[in-house]
Amino acid sequence: MCGITGFWSARRLADEAERQLDGMMQTLAHRGPDGTGQYLDAARGVALGHTRLSINDLGETGAQPLQGLGGRFVLVANGELYDFKRMRSTLMALGDRFASKSDNELAISLYEKYGLDFVHQLRGEFAIALYDRQEDSLILVRDRFGIRPLFWHLADNTFYFGSETKSILAHPAVSRRMCPKALLNQLMHTMVPGTSAFDGIQALEPGHLLVVNRRDGRLELDKRRYWDLDFPVAEARDASVDAEEHIARIRDRLVESILLRLEADVPVGCYLSGGIDSCAILGLATGAQQSPVKAFTISFDSDEYDEGAIATEMAESMRAEQELIRLTADELYGDNYIRTAWHAERTFYNTLGVAKYRMSKRVHECGYKTVITGEGADELFAGYPAFKRDMFQHGLAGLDPGTRAEYQRALEEANRIFRGAILSENPMQHPAFDRLCGFTPSWIQPWISTLELVRPLLHADLQAELADYDPVAAIADALDPTMIEERHALDKAQYTWSKTMLEGQILNWGGDRVDMANSMESRPAFLDHTLAEAAVQVPPELRIRGTTEKWILREAVKGVLPELLYKRPKFAFMAPPAHTDERKAARVDQLIARYLSPDALRRAGLLDTPAVGAFLDGYRGDRDPVSLVRKDALLNHLLCVQILHEQFIERRPSAPPSVNEPS
Q1: Same domain for 344 and 453?
Q2: Rounded distance, CA 122 to CA 208, Å?
Q3: Which of 235, 246, 354, 386 has the most other CB atoms within 10 Å of its CB?
Q4: What is the pLDDT of residues 110-150, one digit of tens each?
């Protein structure tokens, strides 16, 4: 795991290019504290930088940029390529030779052999930049699910890229402005795929590669999709495969994925919550290691939200050493909150990201650089309550009305405390999603409701600029209809979520960004593409069976799960919102005083001062739990907008903020 950044100019590099690259790399020091490396070719306009976190090949040969043995290619990479030892052996049998023991050097050899088709040979989570001196082209590649971040910007015939937007913004030639459209999308919670919070800076979409060529003194871009989460057309599903065969296939692929992610030259731990995903990971990893695996668990000071006791039961059943990290208001707000926003580079609706930031810090303090995590299981096996609602409403055509109503009541009651955030209290529709899917997926309905609160909070100038912009339609329009047409309703719900919320939220401020903030690599075993390709073949009625979500996964791993956990319904992993106790309310008031004061609002010029004041008055006087859940989410977004403006627009980013606030 590392940080990569750089730029490629159609002109000769200026004398200050090395200093500029240094500045970009400094912003990524947290991603790679174990070493730095640069490649500059002034005549060709190329500047590539790398900050290293040593996981494999801990010696000097693993340092980047990598150039292989021929000198034609220069590569900087972030992430892990799995099964690389077998692939290296195969390539060496065919005559290839390697200059290092690094897994990432494999990409050079594969590209030389297969050209751009080399991406199909890569397995893992990665972001790669490879300069081909012979073709005079730069190739950027991002892994299939977007586990590792990668951003780019083109201006004045110069192409900039980086693992995080802050590295691009650190270059003095790059202008800094919050993107108005992205601002509105963040406030309603859902970003448009391929965007960032900042004007002109794009995210390379998961499963895509971007080729930058120099043609007649100008840089040209060619973006291509090489992989997608491809559910089969409903009428073309293979009905000859029975449930037991699907179960065995999922189990085999998951075990293989975990085995590959245990490969490292440093110790590997596990994140452990009270859900079946991380518990399955711990159980299977323990079997593979034939010894206890260190487990790290977040515990909250709220019985309604805390899963610590269930996680401890699992840890004890596996004889794992467990590090229980109990988080209170003081841990979730203040300095940790501000630093999480700086690392995430986008707003968040719940302090879960802050909790994950705090946990990765503890993992690092315990001497671990790598953990295996359970992200992705809900996306592949239909674990979220919104998926169940869509299944009950649109995916079970033959279900009698009485049973359907019973299923609905059970779902609503089980997720009572999350209404207003992950489930809307009233049905919402949007024509763009109705056209795309035939219905509006339940996962986006709460955030459509939020738009009514959001628009009046924008500064008058931005309201005028965005008068004709529909943030919900922008999301729908960014999705490929050919991957949705003729699919089952559950497939449509899972696909639309995975292309938006998985990459933009769960793998961002719930994953890579807050883990790498503390130089710690997370490896989500469920997001191995071979497992995903098996999961999409599982019929919807085996993903959600009756009222049981993730039924196929439960059956595949039930041997390592305690009985209580095997039978337990999905419980959303969220931090307690600020309104749930006085201490949290007091701590969030300190953030409000700093970032949502009339002076701070006027200075940023993004939000309407009287409207925000009225919103805060309404929030403090509200007693409706559903309304408060929604307003808590919006309050977090408002605070983060102001933090991002202060940290990235008012000053050029260089290092994480040093904040001294009263406790």
Answers
A1: yes
A2: 13
A3: 354
A4: 999 999 999 999 999 999 999 999 999 999 999 999 999 99
Last residue within a domain, chosen from 577, 609, 626: 577
- The domain that contains 127 carries what CATH number? 3.60.20.10
- Entry field: residues in the chain: 663
The predicted-structure confidence for 218-234, as pLDDT tens digits, reads as follows 999 999 999 999 999 98
Looking at the structure, do residues 473 and 568 belong to the same domain, yes or no? Answer: yes
Pairing of strands 268-271, 370-373: parallel
246 and 215 part of one domain? no
**pTM over 0.90, yes/no:** yes
Q: Are residues 344 and 240 in the same domain?
A: yes
Q: Which pLDDT tens digit goes with each residue over 284-293? A: 998 888 777 8
Q: What is the dihedral of CA 277, 283, 285, 289, to 10 degrees?
A: 170
Amino acid (1-letter code) at residue 521: E
Question: What is the count of structural domains for the chain?
Answer: 2
Q: 522 — alpha (psi -120 to 50), left (phi > 0) or beta?
A: beta
Is 67 inside any structural domain? yes
| Distances from the Cα of 468 to the Cα of 455, 456, 465, angstroms | 12, 14, 8
User: Which residues does residue 208 pair with via DSSP β-bridges, in sequence order?
Assistant: 225
For residue 269, which phi and psi values (nearest 5 degrees)?
-105, -170
Q: What whole-number distance in Å separates Cα of residue 659 and Cα of residue 338? A: 8
Over the stretch 500-546, which tens digit does the pLDDT of each residue have?
A: 999 999 999 999 999 999 999 999 999 999 999 999 999 999 999 99
